[in-house]
């Protein structure tokens, strides 16, 4: 894959179809893809896929995307056409009616090994006119740990089964041996086989819909509509770009650390240029690959670029016409944003992916201030796997959980609370009842996290706190894929950060352990409890400009505590009868506290970090004072100071927050 990718397509006549036929077919293509989604939702075996970790697409004969679904998750945006093209490249003229191909290869434009795609060619008049594709996240794809998320992996060989393009149906004949080879490499082969059939049948639904359109409008008209649908999107995007200021913008976001090096944040640099010819991104200067599985392959890096940009064009359909307006130089192989074979990439989703998206949000917030948004919480996966002792056969189980969290405060309103990650907006929160039926894990709490939203004139959305207990299980281990325990979710335009991610084991007991935000294969026993918060979004604007009445409403709603109302917003509130939500704003004390914060907050950011760490360990200040007031980053379990990480965090906090304070 070249370092710079530009999607090129043959130009179609702009007005070859009449407007009515064009609109009917354009929307019919969208319906054909959404019907795929409805099919997989009703027939899948995996609880993960049922929770909407899947996407679908209709591609033209060259593999270019004609339409993606209305409920697809962002991470699959911009990768499905790479995989269709990989099938074409692999099999060339040896593609026949009734064939179905499987692929999950992240080095051929895929996401990670768990995301398995099935690609079906659609024939008319003896030739390929399109491809239907469905991608779903299999709960396990083999590898060292249950769920296939191995933090210790530096190369892909321990992460799971790599599926280069392979034929699973040949001219309509199911190849049992090939399918068995694939599913036998998972810890839940029956579940994987069920998903394999469900995903294949979903592509058949799309094929039937496209051929129904062919019967009504003719092959040539349908093909022309596919081309014009892409051209329409490209023209629309380019027209809007021409109306925007031209120039170059830059930013940087970070991973928490590289386990193979000393402490310090890992930079992901983004430069974007608008020059009248489209959108051009450059990721030069991003760090080398890290010694864990948080690296990104080229497909997922392009996906993050496309998805981040598409967020600011919400009404434009998504297809290869959009991609044609965007170019990106992601640099040579061997970096955290272009890992290449054989570097481990399964954790890209919690690594570079959302850092790229949030960095792109920050850049576009300057171009479209009416749509501006601070940083959103980081995607996280907690996996507990082992043997289910509730059954005599003790089958493997995978408790595979992700949480909702908060999005950043916006230019005119607070961020969304307890919502899906930007990585996958369509992801559903998994039902606790379903998880408890399928696995020996009991959910003990699941609630909004007070003080988790980054303070700002417009508050970041709140995150969620979730706890659980392992019940009847044998030989079980826990793994966690996340980030932003150190590169904490940030605010903009004066807004403050959120809270750090991380998992606590047996919190509040003598066996309490803070496991951090990235680990794998931690042994757990029946009766062990675990707790984790998801971060809220970063704040937008100076928190001292939030009205006292809005802060009071946050206190009443449980979004902000009385202590943080004073510490972060300078609003002093007296409780009268909390059970009846009766509080009173102390206007005089609020004015005095806000004046005090304004006078001292710049100096607070320059306090000796070692002094701050010592006060935290002594219990004199709390975690949020350390982060929001002093800009210091510690090991949240031991209180150890991270000097280089603190320097980098403060530098960014000054840029995004302090320079905007009055």
UniProtKB/TrEMBL annotation:
Domain of life, per lineage: Bacteria
Domain Hydantoinase B/oxoprolinase: 18-543
GO MF term list: 5-oxoprolinase (ATP-hydrolyzing) activity
Pfam families assigned to the protein according to its UniProt record, in alphabetical order: Hydantoinase_B
A single Gene Ontology CC term: cytosol
Signal peptide: none
GO biological process: glutathione metabolic process
Record's protein name: Hydantoinase B/oxoprolinase family protein
Organism from which the protein derives: Leucobacter triazinivorans
